User: What shape does this take?
Amino acid sequence: MLSFLLRTGWKKLWTLFFISVISFAVIHLAPGEPSQIDPMNPRFTPQQLERYRKAFDLDQPLHIQYLRFYRRLFTGELRSFKDNQPVLPKIVERVWNSLWLFLAGTILVWCAAFPLGITTAIRRNSVLDKVTTVVVFALISIPGFYLAYLLIIFVVQTFHVDVIGLRTFGHQGRNLVWSFMDRTWHLVLPSVLGATAGIAILSRYVRAQMLEVITSDYVRTARAKGLDEDTVLYKHALRNGLLPFVTMLGLIVPGLVGGSVIIETIFAWPGIGRLGYEAILSRDYPIVITLNFVAALLTLVGTLLSDLLYMVVDPRIRLEGVE
Amino acid sequence: MMACALFFVVALFGLLVTKGDQPVLDPRQVRLADKFRPPLSLPNRQAVPIDALPRLGVYVLGTDELGRDVFARMLEGAFVSLSVGFVAVGIAVAIGIIFGGIAGYYGRVRILRLMSVDTLITGLIDVALSFPAFFLILTVVAILRPSIWNIMVVIGLTSWEGTARFVRAEILALREQDFVQAARALGVSGPRVILRHLLPNAVAPVLVSATLGIAGAILTESALSFLGFGVPPPDATWGNVLSDGKNYLFDAWWLTIIPGTAILVIVLAFNLFGEGLREAFNPRLRQL
Assistant: This one.
């Protein structure tokens, strides 16, 4: 048990090191050498290049650049090019807004994906299974922004509510119920849109896992013992069928940044996805690089959590090291 | 499957009729007098010069904000979108096979006595999976300037992990089998053992993830177009036709609905094809 923990921790530390190197290396893709000043391109003015060189110590050797970058990041010295604010607090502030979306989306995903995946696996090749398969695949095949536009038009024309932004502008004095409903309406569309891909992918995982389980020997044994179908499915099979829940826990986190760029841009939602997009548009490299790093870091924490959960849930993993 | 085959035919046909100095259907012909014509409308013969009239007599899928023929643009875009998907996935599969092959076959070799090759490569896969792929692609494309080649390469470089994992797992499972021993005893070199004797066993999962990868790459390209970092203007892709069209959603629905539905149908076709392959290759499910 302890050796498993130590091994996992050691591996994660290495991963963290590589993540920090790669996040940092992205800087070197950006124009930074004097020979790259293009007089025709108004974006690369000498002043901007100078600021860029200073922010990332481009005149130092590589390993010094790397160390200084992370020292600045954590001491709050690394500042945004745009408004000269420290990078980390700026990102943390936006994370809270995104967290709302992320939580609502994740709850939707779990509530829909598990029942769907399990039912379609049990009734494989039924009409329900085929219809869900097509619908689920249509959901991952449609370009997100296209679906978003269609849904916005539908909701706004049918229910006459405002859905863009965090809340309707200019109604600060209204009563609690009204503002609660207003917030909810604003939350519904982006979180549903954010959840579609998750529902589709996770329900396929659950279905595949469940199929794997119900064709395995121990389920056949349970049936042979004469247990009734419900006990076999929901007591014996379901336990292993729920494993994707643990696996996906870590991998769902990158969506917090990556998946939210488009949705937050469409809905003018002041979260980290939109912060990232605005930073990219305005060449605010400190923010862009830190966001990549923070997102990868969060994922790492997520996978660490799912590794630990696995250890609790699946005894095979605990025993692996003993052999 | 049929839809995928049809898409190839459409893409090749599109390449034939829209490329060259004097294409049969010119996707770049601007006709300002005939902008925003709905599908199947007739051209305005007084205002449009004879040589700019659509070859088919009508605007089959309408015209856009510059009076360009949407049908011709969609045909041109079919080939560009398809090649974005194929080149990106080709790069991803190549990297995946190389890394997966090395990790599986040479996994026990140690580097500088610190860690084994396998630890290093599985570590790299973990690292690559940790980054938010779409945001990383956006970052790199934004820094390097969007061009069709940059987009293909960057999508490819960020989507090789699945293939590498499958190849590694398959080679690990087969490495100690007799036929591999026999090949080695005959003096067959390592890379050749990997490519000729081990890799064919991993074709199924690689093919599945490649098919799904093409679908993903087409979607990623359209998402990049939406954010303004897609394939730049003279080339038409389904993604940039859609993201240009959405600005005129209320005036000209066909500019949004046609490319949007086209992307939906083709990505769906690739996804279902990949899923079908997966089920067909899984011997466990065949018995059911």
In short: The first helix of chain B runs from residue 2 to 18. The interface with chain A takes residues 115, 119, 123-124, 126-127, 129-136, 138-140, 142-144, 215, 219, 222-223, 226-227, 239, 242-243, 246, 249, 256, 260, 263-264, 267-268, 271-272, 275, 284-285, 287-288 of chain B (CB under 8 Å). The mean pLDDT of chain B is 80.
